[in-house]
Design a protein that fits this description.
globular, 16% strand, alpha/beta, single chain, Aspartate Aminotransferase, domain 1, seven-stranded mixed beta sheet, Aspartate Aminotransferase, domain 2, binds 3-[O-phosphonopyridoxyl]--amino-benzoic acid
Length: 469
């Protein structure tokens, strides 16, 4: 037993030592962490965070795709305080409910746009994106059982997708490294290719042609499995953790045609893309498709407190409610009153400050224009954005678009230059990605682009010195 007193202030070294001794981090090589010591993030304001050494960092990742309204919002703290003093917790099992959960479900149902014959009147709550996708698997299977088609079990997803880290979430995801460590995927989940034009487009093929071809992989898979075996297709509107893979314009309409043709359910995993990130409350509106289930988490509270859930479309809700009886699924924290109160306050800010409209309008245009200027940088193969997410690929040769060897870990080189120069940008292989708060001003967009360009210049210099370019 140690004699640690949590109320004593700690210096960076002490925190790092205790961190390495007691805290198992997600997705972290602990040998490496122990040698280098974690960076300790201690406070935040607006679009900035500070570390324990007083270094100020422009957080272009909004924490981890979460903090859409920016840091330091008093209204969210107040909402949590007020709710904690009124009713910090009660469960929603056993025919009980609480006021913030009811209000939030009603609010979300009002924000989710109706598309064609699909509307969303119901919400299932969880505490994270992973749990929500587990709930999706349960709901999809229950749906087909109730319709007398229990053989419809297979859920099709995509390689390089990210749908969470629980057994079902990681199985739905298409990350080979995750599958390799947990005997995953669990049965009845399979994957098709992702719509990554830069990587998989054929010479002479346009992005639109490629989009149709990539969507066609879904139809091929359905026919291979037998349509009567397929329960659902799950996809992120834009693949986020996979490196901000933005599909060509033809992709989603063709996916919609295919799921309609075979009657399979469509799950839109909007854990990253909802709540203004693409300029709409929900991203299916941006791309014009009609999902049956929509996963959300992260920015529903701007990350101030954990909350996730599933928008349950009428097609599924009707069957589960009218024919289902008791659904044997749920979490202690489904509809947590404090989390729901914070979400309501967060959505209030987004509405008052018109954050989705801002991203869809002039501010989004300005961001897109400034970001696209990175296409002139010698290290950049292509720089693309959609709303307030953006990605670029680092290339060895701008003319031939030759890629770096994965062993060169160029993304990590660039990320290090970002970190040591006041910028948080994420590396996924040779892709550098950002998802900044939706509150960015013109001046902050200019500052962000200056920081990115500086990090790219330093990366270029280092790669040149190492003889890699
Ligand atoms: N779906 C999507 C689309 C996600 O991006 C999840 C589900 C799982 O959510 P939870 O709340 O269970 O983590 C996510 C999460 C990264 C990174 O490295 C991305 C996520 C999580 C952790 C790291 O970009 N996304």
């Amino acid at each position: 037993m140690n004699t640690f007193n949590p109320s004593e202030p700690l210096g960076t070294k002490e925190i790092q030592t205790l961190d390495s001794a007691h805290f198992i981090h997600p997705f972290t090589d602990h040998g490496d962490l122990a040698t280098r010591g974690a960076r300790v993030i201690t406070r935040s304001e607006g679009v900035y965070v500070w570390d324990s050494e007083g270094e100020k960092l422009f957080d272009a990742m909004s924490g981890l795709w979460c903090v859409n309204v920016g840091y330091g919002r008093q209204a969210l703290a107040q909402a949590a305080y007020d709710q904690m003093m009124t009713l910090p917790f009660y469960n929603s099992f056993f025919q009980t409910t609480n006021v913030p959960a009811v209000k939030l479900a009603t609010k979300l149902a009002a924000l989710a746009p109706k598309v064609g014959d699909r509307s969303f009147e119901h919400v299932f709550f969880s505490s994270s994106g992973s749990e929500s996708n587990d709930s999706n698997v349960r709901m999809v299977r229950r749906y087909w059982d109730l319709l007398g088609q229990p053989q419809r079990k297979v859920i099709i997803s995509r390689h390089n997708a990210y749908h969470g880290s629980t057994m079902a979430g990681a199985s739905l995801g298409g990350m080979s490294g995750m599958h390799a460590q947990g005997d995953l995927p669990i049965p009845n989940i399979t994957h098709i290719g992702q719509p990554y034009y830069f990587e998989d487009g054929k010479p002479g093929e346009t992005a639109d042609e490629f989009g149709l071809r990539a969507a066609g992989w879904l139809e091929e898979k359905i026919l291979e499995l037998g349509a009567d075996k397929v329960a659902a297709f799950i996809a992120e509107p834009i693949q986020g953790a996979g490196g901000v893979i933005i599909p060509p314009a033809t992709y989603w309409p063709e996916i919609q045609r295919i799921v309609d043709k075979y009657g399979i359910l469509l799950i839109s995993d909007e854990v990253i893309c909802a709540f203004g990130r693409l300029g709409h409350w929900f991203a299916y509106e941006k791309f014009g498709y009609k999902p049956d289930l929509v996963t959300f988490a992260k920015a529903v509270t701007s990350g101030y407190i954990p909350l996730g859930g599933v928008m349950v479309g009428d097609r599924v809700a009707k069957v589960l409610i009218e024919q289902g009886g008791e659904f044997n699924h749920g979490y202690t924290y489904s509809g947590h009153p404090v989390a729901c109160a914070v979400a309501l306050a967060n959505l209030d800010i987004m509405e008052q400050e018109q954050l989705p409209q801002r991203v869809r309008g002039e501010m989004g245009d300005y961001f897109a224009k400034r970001y696209a200027e990175l296409n002139d940088h010698p290290l950049v193969g292509v720089a693309e954005s959609c709303g307030f997410v953006a990605g670029l690929v680092l290339v060895k040769n701008k003319q031939t678009l030759e890629r770096f060897n994965p062993d060169d870990a160029v993304g990590m080189v660039c990320r290090r230059h970002c970190f040591t120069n006041g910028l948080i940008m994420r590396a996924v292989g040779d892709r550098m990605i950002i998802a900044p708060p939706l509150t960015l001003t013109h001046a902050e967009i200019d500052e962000l682009l200056r920081l990115i360009r500086h990090a790219l210049d330093l990366t270029q210099r280092e790669l040149h010195q190492k003889g890699l370019i």
